[in-house]
Amino acid sequence: MKTSYLQTIQLVERLHRQCLELVKAELERLAIRDLNNVQALILFNIGEEELTVGELTQRGYYLGSNVSYNVKKLVENGYLIQQRSLHDRRSFHVKASERGVAVYRHLSALFERHVAEMPDAGFSPEMLNDAGRVLARLLRFWSAPGSVRAPMTDAA
């Protein structure tokens, strides 16, 4: 069990790095030089919504200081529009500018191409669903070790 667990940790790390490399390659293909792969993924996760910086952090995508730094850079480079909340003067709302939405759409198209290629690579929807359930369960375990005890179900 220990070997499988450690191999899974290494695979999760490698998958994350490889995803960042895919995004980096797409940015290079598009000749976007003022945006890094992490910032592009922030734009992708914001999409066409308006969120607070706190919501980005709460969703678990990024560490607080990284979010603040990257949001600042995204605003400076014209990818995000940042406005102070009318209801809570301490928080800021962010949404993608036209430039940011364009990046979101490019990444969305990239991921759509990947989805279209997956059956030819031997992936089925069931395989991805199973992998997602296992990874979600591992995430819950890491978030609160000892609290994940029930057998895995479709709701996992």
Automatic annotation (TrEMBL):
Q: Which InterPro entries match?
A: HTH_MarR-typ (IPR000835), MarR/SlyA-like (IPR039422), Tscrpt_reg_MarR-type_CS (IPR023187), WH-like_DNA-bd_sf (IPR036388), WH_DNA-bd_sf (IPR036390)
Q: Which GO terms describe its molecular function?
A: DNA binding; DNA-binding transcription factor activity
Top-rank taxon: Bacteria
Gene Ontology biological process terms in this record: response to stress
Question: Which stretches make up the HTH marR-type domain?
Answer: 2-140
> What does the UniProt keyword field contain?
DNA-binding, Transcription, Transcription regulation
Q: Which residues cross the membrane?
A: none
Name of this protein: Transcriptional regulator, MarR family
